Each structure stands twice: as structure tokens, then as C-alpha cells.
Amino acid sequence: MTFDPSTIFAFFFYAFAGLLVLSAVRVITARNPVHAALFLVLAFFCASGLWMLLKAEFLSLALILVYVGAVMVLFLFVVMMLDLDIEHLRRDFKKFLPLAFLMGVVIVLELSIVLIRSFIGTNMPVQALPPEVSANNTLALGKLIFVDYVYAFEVAGVILLVAIIAAVALTLRNRKDSKSQNIAQQVSVNAADRMRIVQMDSDMAAKQDVRGERK
Predict the structure, then answer these.
(1) Among 58-67, 91-100, 104-113, which stretch is predicted with the lowest mean pLDDT?
(2) Radius of gyration over alpha carbons of the chain, in Å?
(3) N or C: which end of the chain has fewer CB within 10 A?
(4) Is 50 within 8 Å of 17 (Cβ atoms)?
């Protein structure tokens, strides 16, 4: 019994694509934000599998190492440390539904314009890369990121840095149950504040007192 490579490719492609769609739907429908983040991790793994099938090995591994290994861990820490009020979010869900619907319509229109301009009514030829670059995915990606789109890459790095700083600032807010060090208070402390000398009777005298009380 022989297997057709195209059939195996189609099977894995539709399997990863279907699981990706289901996990993406669960990201926005899960009531628990931690569960939503875990479904997002599953969506990243499925997208990585699709890129591996399309022979984009660098993007596939970078998605797992960067997003699943770093960004999603940061998301989970932020979600758990913020201690979100789930009941408050559920109660105000309908209140923000019109605004969310409007933003969704805007995003759909933007994506539609991009797709229409990319596949309909354009005859621009695709710029071919040099043979030494097109033969290596990593080399081609590096040339595009650090040569052709270096400014966009730097802007994305600054945005991620701002997001990390904002996450740290949100988690370091003053909370009653959080404990932190006051370095200035620790340095300026006196010995009298740290140690107190208490005069106590010897053990023998204490034992005699105990025996006297028993008698």
C-alpha cells in the first residue's frame, strides 16, 4: 500500500488549519483568560505546523521559540498577576459590544482592501531574489528584515519594548498583599531598632520557681 505525498500533505494541512480555526475561536469565547491564553498557544503551534508544511522552517521555529516560549509566558504572568475581575468583565460585555463590533468591521474592511489590492487588478511582476538568497529561507528573510524593512523592524521592536514596560508597570502597582523592599529604610536602620536586650532569670531559678508553684 503506497501513500501519495500530496494526499498526506493535504491531510496535515487541513488538520492543522481546522485546529487553528477552532483554537482561534476558543481564544475569544473562553471565559477564563488563562484558558484563552492556552488556546492561543495551541493556535501558535498549529500555525507553526502550517509554516513547516509550506517549507518556511525559520518562521515556524521562530513562532514557537519567540511567541510560545517568551511572549505567551509573559501574557500568562500578566494575566495571573493582574488578578482580573472576571465577573466585572462579563457584566460589562454587552456595554462594549457595539464598539467591539465597529472595530471588527473596520478590521475586516482593511483586510479586504489588502486582499483585493493583492490579488485583483494588479499586474505588477514579483521581484525575484538573487539565486544565492532564494536558495536559503533564512538568508532571504534576513535580507528582507535587516535590509529592505529595517525601519519597520526597529519600530516593531520599540513597540514590543513599550508593551513589556507597560506590563511591568501594571504588575508593580501598590497592592495590600504585595511585599517589597525599602532600600533607604534598610540602610538607615539603627542597631536599637533591630535588636532588643531582655533580662531573663537563669534556667535554675526558673526551674525552682516552677517547682515551688507545683508544691
Answers:
(1) 91-100
(2) 30
(3) N
(4) yes
